[in-house]
């Protein structure tokens, strides 16, 4: 070995140690954020409670039947059921299970980097370790953390199969693919993208005959979804009430808003890293045929750059087709997949200066984004538990509780321990899950609020008080009461938003007309509020 070669090896080894040091530091920071979320996130909110309540269904057959009211396939619910059987169903136990989901994503990016020849997941952690929305939503009691983990592992497994299709690798890829779609339905989209990337890798490596292997593995994942066709069919019977006008602009705003929930420094670094990944892919494509010993690395870089572009386009197209408004947590898997794709593209950089530049950018992102990520973790997800505690301590015999809108009852019922009668607006016979099928039926009823209003009147006339957990929206003075025809309606179809507002105004108008005192007991602040922030009123004094 020449002196220059020896110096080159020593330099590469030092850079490798620097990369490892950064990656372990970023991992430790992310774990610290998870720990802070565990301590400070507080009570479960309604989506988490929906999962917990479904997991507690006594009969497995009933659990599977009721899975149409959950966002994830039954295996995820069964996994949660197994956890509660082992560790209990307390908030602390469930929060810990959620944090394990977030930690699994960190493990996945480490495995992906090492499995594809990188010393450490420098790029992935530069993005994920300081992304508040990823840290928060991957560690809730939902499937997004574990689903994102499996999405990254599918990409790793399919690429490794193409490079060396051994029996073990094929088996692991099938397991990862099937598990991925069994935890998170929308992972089917990322699996399709990963299959396309693996096919491209086979072609670029000059081994096009292997391109059928990832296709066959992806088909196995698709077949694993066939048992849920009945569930999906039942969902279609009521899911139209959730549909809204979804445009490319609205999805783009949500995606950018979710990704931009961090410091401007981190955002700028991520933009530079993404541009560098794309540039690495283009440069590798131009020089693919040169230096045959570098062909494999350059093929990976091209695939990584292609996936970095393709994944967001396909996911956005999927949500457009779904016609359902998205939230930040829907993009956790995409963020993780895109970060792994950028890692794949930049992993082809062999020059010491290029690796040091990437490492420097990663350090800037970690330092620049740490404060915003850390400060975002204590934000609680709900205040309804506090309202339930208030009603528990101050409610008196003869009082009544009305929860408006109805879906807040999932959280209220978990935390309220008093004897008072609890109704929802509109009344529902099952408040344990998001029963949108029942809401669809209520939308067809002309006097759906009558039983609730009659019960309120009886309680007030008897001298009791009514606690309103949620909205109180009477019709503004001078305007006629809101009237809606039966759905589907011109312009809005089956959308339930109008009905939710109608039911709320019916409640508000009744209370304004028939009560003498309406006291606002709790109102959320203007900033830093949980996603499930609402008001609490107490009304009394009957006026016929």
Please explain how this structure is put together.
The protein is mainly α and 544 residues long. It is built from 22 helices and five strands.
The number of helical runs is 22
Helix content: 55-70%
* Rg of Cα set: 26 Å
Low-confidence stretches: none
**Number of DSSP-assigned strands:** 5
Provide the descriptors you would attach to this structure in a database record.
544 residues, mainly alpha, five-stranded mixed sheet, 5% strand
Describe how the helices and strands are arranged.
Elements lengths: L2 H38 L5 H10 L4 H6 L8 H14 L3 H25 L6 H7 L3 H6 L6 H20 L3 H17 L3 H18 L7 H12 L5 H8 L11 H12 L4 H23 L8 H28 L9 H15 L5 H25 L7 H11 L5 E5 L4 H7 L5 E4 L11 H8 L6 H12 L4 E5 L26 H18 E8 L13 E7 L2
Parallel strand pairs: 1-2, 1-3
Antiparallel strand pairs: 3-5, 4-5
Helix pairs in contact: 1-5, 1-6, 1-17, 2-4, 2-19, 5-8, 5-16, 6-16, 6-17, 8-9, 8-10, 8-16, 9-11, 10-11, 10-15, 14-15, 14-16, 14-17, 15-16, 18-19
Quickly describe the structure:
Helix content is 62%, strand content 5%. The protein is mainly alpha-helical and 544 residues long. The mean pLDDT is 91.
